[in-house]
Amino acid sequence: MELSLKEIAQVIGGKLIGNGSIMISAINSLDAAGTGEISFFIDHRYREKLQKTEASAVIIREETHHFKGPQVVVYNPELAYAKVAGLFASPMHGKPGISEQAVVHKTSRIGKNTCIYPLVYVGEDAEVGEDTILFPGVFVGERVRIGRGTVIYPNVTILQDCLIGNNVVIHAGTVIGSDGFGFVRDGSRSVKIPQTGIVQIDDHVEIGANNCIDRASLGKTWIRNGVKTDNLVQVAHNVVIGENTIVVAQAALGGSVHVGQEVIIGGQVGISDHLKIGDRAMIGSQSGVAKSLLPGEVVSGSPSMPHRLWLKISGLIKRLPRFNERLRNLEKKIDEIENRQS
Fold first, then answer.
1. Among residues 202, 198, 213, 96, which one has the least CA distance to residue 147?
2. DSSP 88-111
3. What are the CA-CA distances from residue 190 to residues 30, 87, 146, 184, 196 (Å)?
4. Residue 216 gets which letter from DSSP?
5. What is the pLDDT averaged over residues 39-47?
6. What is the pLDDT of residue 207?
């Protein structure tokens, strides 16, 4: 596939500087790009690479003399990069049909142009929408509903009664609908609470590799439209994650947490059970959240606190040994003064 630089500039809403008739066939990094490829410049630390790049054109925030070729100036080069990369990315597709090595229950309903690879299992009364791809090793339990245009990568497990929307991407190894961690103590024993709810994943959600999304004890665990999760995320029973929220790797959301819209949850964040995280809140990496957050609140640290306060505290931590030494010296001087006066 080839596009003229003028066409690319129109797609990303950029200002074209230079020859717009140059044909572009791919996007690449500054140091790897060659003739016929477009690159992007975001970080000034890579100015030297910009000067040396052999790319035919670059996407950039403002015009620069460090690159002599055509430039496409945009307000947000990162967003422009994502759009251009999407133009040249190979579409995910498979040959429509059901492999003879797949096991598909006779009562299931399979949509048109669906691709079901070998070693897939589709259970009783399940439904798979049109143009959906199930890669090898996918398990689809009884009465599961999967929408159209969804891609489910190898070895994903979707257990009974769960609902998956349209244009969803679920990466390899994820488990959806495993039992929530529900037990009650009977003396020294732990008695299991039956987990009878479901998981519902709405449209345009992308779930990373090796996520675990637990079914609700009652009702549903709900991942709403446009949510994106990184790899190795744990979502406990009855959690609700609001639209267009981002959850970064190794985060864990406790049972019945309610996350608002457009929230950003950093890597290795832990959120305690039953908390509410307000719309557009931001939680820094490795934070431990033990109380609910207001809309727009920005926190870091463990226990979490306002981000600016955490920056001050983390700066002081490195100076504590020096403070301790000064304190001991002051104590010695005070002791000497008191001994002389006694």
1. 202
2. HSPPP---SEE-TTSEE-TT-EE-
3. 57, 53, 35, 6, 18
4. P
5. 91
6. 98
With 80 as the cut, is the pLDDT of residue 342 above it?
no
Output the DSSP codes for 40-70: EE--GGGHHHHHH---SEEEESS--SS--S-
Residue tagged active-site, from 93, 171, 237, 307: 237
Tell me the C-alpha to C-alpha distance, in Å, between residue 254 and each of 168, 276, 336. Answer: 24, 11, 54
Contacts with 84 (C-beta within 8 Å, 6 or more apart), sequence order: 8, 11, 12, 27, 38, 40, 59
Q: How far apart are CA 263 and CA 282, in angstroms?
A: 6
pLDDT number for residue 175: 98
- How far apart are alpha carbons 71 and 16 in whole angstroms? 6
Closest CA to 205 of 221, 229, 186, 176: 229
Q: Any catalytic annotation for residue 65?
A: no
Residues 6+ apart with CB under 8 A from 1: 25, 87, 88
**118: which 2 tokens?**
């070998």
Using CA atoms, how far apart are residues 212 and 117, in angstroms rounded to an integer? 23
Give the CA count within 13 Å in the CB-facing half-sphere of 159.
Answer: 17
Spatial CB neighbours of 312, under 8 Å, sequence gap ≥ 6: none
Share of the chain above pLDDT 70, in %: 100
Check residue 129 and give its pLDDT. Answer: 98
Position 90 scores a pLDDT of 80
Instruction: Determine if the pTM surpasses 0.85.
Output: yes
- Looking at this protein, which amino acid is placed at residue 194? P
Task: Tell me the C-alpha distance between 81 and 84, whole Å.
Answer: 5
Per-residue pLDDT tens for 304-341? 999 999 899 988 988 999 999 999 999 999 988 988 88
Helix (H) or strand (E) holding 6: helix 5-12
Count CB-CB contacts under 10 A for residue 186: 8
The residue whose two tokens read 């890669």 is 135
Amino acid occupying residue 200: Q
Residue entry with tokens 């990568």: 153
Kindly report which listed range (60-74, 205-219, 267-281, 304-318) carries the lowest average pLDDT score.
304-318
